[in-house]
Specification:
It is a single chain. The chain is built from seven helices and no strands. The protein folds into two domains: about 90 residues, Up-down Bundle (Four Helix Bundle (Hemerythrin (Met), subunit A)), CATH 1.20.120; about 35 residues. The chain is mainly α. The radius of gyration is 22 Å and the shape is extended. Helix content is about 80%, strand content about 0%. The termini are far apart.
């Protein structure tokens, strides 16, 4: 076992343990903070797989955007904080049995499969250059179409939000 394997097992353990806290925690704030470690563990695994662009995107988008938004939403909403998020054994028992069955099946598949090990294959140093080149040449049109679809969705969401506020303003006058 070399250093690469130890680091991989560390990130895998952090990811799985914090994901377990997300699922089985009775406090929604603890679940949200455990999700932070889950995202960082996944980003660490991406780094080990030489997918540096995806790792940085994982940190910027999920940790920097989505998780911070979720934390602000949870902490600033009084109704969510006052609700007791407690589950009994009746609800967690089927989930625990399902997790045990899936883990057993995956372990069985792991030991039965004849894994092919290939040594000496070198991965590119970074993926950012090749991804940037593909975005600007081969996949330029789909990239632009996706950006236009996202812009239209943003404008649609703004119009829907504005329509809800307009009748309230008219009634106040």
């Amino acid at each position: 076992m070399n250093l690469y394997d130890i680091v991989f097992y560390f990130f895998a353990f952090v990811t799985l343990a914090s994901a377990g806290v997300v699922v089985f925690s009775r406090n929604i704030i603890y679940s949200a903070f455990a999700l932070l470690f889950t995202f960082f563990g996944v980003a660490g695994i991406y780094v080990l797989l030489n997918a540096d662009f995806i790792a940085v995107s994982q940190i910027l988008i999920y940790v920097g955007g989505i998780l911070v938004l979720m934390l602000f939403g949870v902490m600033l909403t009084n109704k969510v904080i006052d609700v007791e998020m407690k589950t009994g054994t009746l609800q967690t028992l089927p989930a625990s049995v399902l997790v045990a069955l899936i883990a057993g099946a995956l372990c069985g598949i792991f030991y039965v499969t004849d894994w092919k090990i290939v040594r000496g294959v070198s991965a590119p140093a970074t993926t950012t250059n090749s991804l940037g080149e593909m975005f600007m040449t081969t996949y330029s049109l789909p990239f632009e179409v996706a950006s236009i679809v996202l812009l239209v969705a943003l404008l649609g969401a703004a119009m829907i939000a504005r329509k809800d506020r307009l009748p309230q303003i008219k009634n106040q006058k």
